[in-house]
């Protein structure tokens, strides 16, 4: 077939139907009217190496396949900082969510144990029912109910000590602190009965907590200054803690003459440590007046009662 006949045939096919391009054949280029009469050679792809396609250079010759490996794209210098910021945000959110859930479980533990004395011993089912969580959620934070109770007791002891330190940080008088501590505990039980029932019904404040350590330190200083007289330090500590705990239990179970009971208990507590009767009465009254002045300012749990 002559060249003119082939061009006419190609032009006819371009006008009626777009030609199907095939590799390795002379076919008309379908782009534009002037290009309909142009023959373009499309070479067949050869498999070279890892199935690499041959490239056609600008002059129509075949170019050799490149064996150079593609280099990974360099990361921007800003990317690590943004990534670290996102990671830190996720870590912080997860930590806050975990702390909220842990506080929720401890609050449910306090509520359950506060009424456990009248309804039987508390169990894990009671805690997860009160917190409205699954058993797996509880065990994700605590290994047992005893561990939750121990942490709750330590937390309450630390909060009590922090409240005493906030109020009496600049007061260097063991007598004044001993007269104020039991009164603060009983007032706290009046303001927050759930807290008071937990303290009265559990033994998790009697361990080596910050609360017991504060009582021990204050008692030793009082004997060194000649204010207290005793021979057994452990007996003096048990006396103060036992009287305070019984006073807390009394405050959550009755409302009859709370103020008189509170002052008499604190006076007898000081007299048992070797303080004279008149001096003990004066110390308790001064402590009560000081509590009413400092409490609303220094204590976060303070409410009018």
Brief description of this entry?
This protein is mainly α. It is built from 12 helices and 4 strands; from the N terminus they run αββββααααααααααα. It has helices at residues 3-16, 78-114, 116-119, 124-131, 135-141, 145-167, 174-191, 193-201, 210-224, 233-253, 258-272, 277-298; strands spanning 26-28, 39-41, 55-56, 62-63.
Layout of helices and strands, plus pairs?
Elements: H1 3-16, E1 26-28, E2 39-41, E3 55-56, E4 62-63, H2 78-114, H3 116-119, H4 124-131, H5 135-141, H6 145-167, H7 174-191, H8 193-201, H9 210-224, H10 233-253, H11 258-272, H12 277-298
Antiparallel strand pairs: 1-2, 3-4
Give a verbal description of the structure.
This protein is mainly α. It has three domains: 3-49, no CATH class; 93-143, Arc Repressor Mutant, subunit A, CATH 1.10.10; 149-298, Tetracycline Repressor, domain 2 (Orthogonal Bundle), CATH 1.10.357. The protein is 63% helix and 3% strand. It is built from twelve helices and four strands; from the N terminus they run αββββααααααααααα. The strands form two sheets. A two-stranded antiparallel sheet has the order 1-2. A hairpin with a 5-residue loop joins β3 (55-56) and β4 (62-63). The chain starts with a helix and ends in a 7-residue tail after the last helix.
